[in-house]
């Protein structure tokens, strides 16, 4: 079960993530990745999809050629949860690999 992160803790945890920002309403983590081409972007999306499926927690995202924009939020809690932070960190590891 996911746990909602309080805003003060969220600000601290967000500082630990590279390039992630809070949405305008403060209820989601957002980031855009750029890759060499479509195949690299799609491979990244596949890795994220598999991690999301294992966690039973799925992103809002879009892909345009070599760019992937990801938004993590926990709708049932109305904000950012520990699970969103964990999956955002996973995205960064996948993009670096």
Q: Which tags fit this structure?
A:
Gyrase A, domain 2, 3 helices, 43% helix, 97 residues, 4 strands
3D structure, described in words:
This protein is an alpha+beta fold and 97 residues long. It has a single domain, classed as Gyrase A, domain 2 (2-Layer Sandwich). It contains three helices and four strands; from the N terminus they run H-E-E-H-E-E-H. The protein has helices spanning 7-15, 38-55, 82-96; strands at 21-22, 29-34, 60-64, 67-72. The protein has a four-stranded antiparallel β-sheet with strand order 1-2-4-3, covered by helices on one side. A hairpin with a 6-residue loop joins strand 1 and strand 2 (29-34). Helix 2 runs antiparallel to helix 3. The termini are far apart. The mean pLDDT is 96.
